[in-house]
């Protein structure tokens, strides 16, 4: 799903399910972009994150990615994308993951009605710049 403003894409939201991922990585593209060695290393580190099947029931949509261009932030783009997806897609339950340092996103998700159900401490948190992954869900009423 994308949001277009004045002919420019200013926001995206990717929603996956247990049968198909919205965002995948493939080795040939990574090797072409980064070279043989770095492409293979990138694929090996990203494969499980982006290509593995999701362990959710059929009624669950997984919000895999949300992004808004800098010039469109604060103008309701992400809110509009979420509302459209939550109304139009057939899922009863939506799950997403956010890192603890992304307070702007956490506020948005809670405003939309998402509730925290799990936290997972991150290994190598100093290198990654965050301590925990926070899992939130929204269930259609």
TrEMBL record:
Keywords for the protein's UniProt record, in alphabetical order: Acyltransferase, Transferase
Record's keyword annotation contains ATP-binding: no
Keyword rRNA-binding: no
Pfam families linked to this entry: Acetyltransf_1
Family annotation (InterPro entries): Acyl_CoA_acyltransferase, GNAT_dom, YpeA/RimI_acetyltransf
All copies of domain N-acetyltransferase, residue ranges: 1-137
Protein name: GNAT family N-acetyltransferase
Species of the source: Paenibacillus spongiae
Lineage summary: Bacteria, Bacillati, Bacillota, Bacilli, Bacillales
């Amino acid at each position: 799903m994308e949001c277009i403003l004045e002919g420019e894409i200013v926001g995206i939201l990717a929603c996956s399910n247990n049968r198909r991922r919205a965002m995948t990585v493939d080795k040939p593209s990574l090797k072409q972009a980064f070279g043989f060695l770095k492409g293979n290393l990138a694929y090996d580190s990203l494969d499980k994150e982006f290509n593995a099947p999701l362990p959710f029931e059929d009624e669950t949509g997984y919000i895999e990615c949300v992004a808004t261009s800098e010039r469109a932030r604060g103008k309701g783009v992400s809110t509009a994308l979420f509302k459209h997806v939550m109304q139009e897609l057939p899922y009863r339950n939506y799950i997403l993951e956010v890192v603890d340092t992304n307070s702007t996103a956490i506020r948005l998700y809670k405003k939309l009605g998402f509730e925290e159900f799990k936290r997972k401490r991150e290994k190598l948190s100093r290198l990654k710049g965050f301590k925990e992954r926070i899992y939130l869900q929204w269930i259609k009423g």
